[in-house]
Design brief:
This protein is α+β, with helices and mostly antiparallel strands. Helices cover 30% and strands 39% of the residues. The longest helix has 21 residues, at 76-96.
């Protein structure tokens, strides 16, 4: 099941990195799987993910729950909310693409399930969280 999860993460990373406005707001970097010790704020990181079998009579599929974290300091909650709105818009465009091929899998569905913002005193900043549900199916013959 991890093949589709990795393909989905790579596709989301590539999609977000290809967005000029987002990359400008992140100073040309700032989307991480593992955040480096001295990462410059603001940045986005991949959080917890879970994968469940979602097989049908006609194919093999998986249901994914994944989290994107958005972190900021200087402009606090406002900056986090602005970045969250931008990421939401980008993810909606990806979701509206008819069954894109993401490395041997089709992205069947991608839906924002919840969002949250909070003050994080340990990081001396604000954090946002976007939780998505995605469904992928294996492309037969790959």
């Amino acid at each position: 099941m991890t093949g589709a999860a990795l393909a989905l993460q790579k596709a989301i990373l590539a999609w977000l990195q290809a967005a000029p406005l987002l990359m400008e707001k992140l100073h040309g970097q700032g989307i991480y799987d593992h955040v480096p010790a001295h990462a410059v704020f603001p940045y986005i990181s991949f959080g917890q993910s879970q994968v469940y079998a979602w097989d049908t009579d006609s194919g093999t599929g998986e249901e994914h729950s994944l989290v994107l974290h958005i972190w900021a300091r200087s402009n606090g909650r406002r900056q986090v909310l602005e970045l969250m709105m931008l990421v939401e818009e980008l993810m909606q465009v990806l979701a509206s693409t008819p069954k894109p091929d993401i490395g041997g899998y089709h992205l069947v569905n991608l839906v924002l399930q919840s969002s949250q913002t909070r003050n994080d005193e340990l990081l001396d900043g604000y954090g946002g969280q976007l939780r998505y549900r995605a469904v992928t199916e294996k492309i037969e013959g790959t």
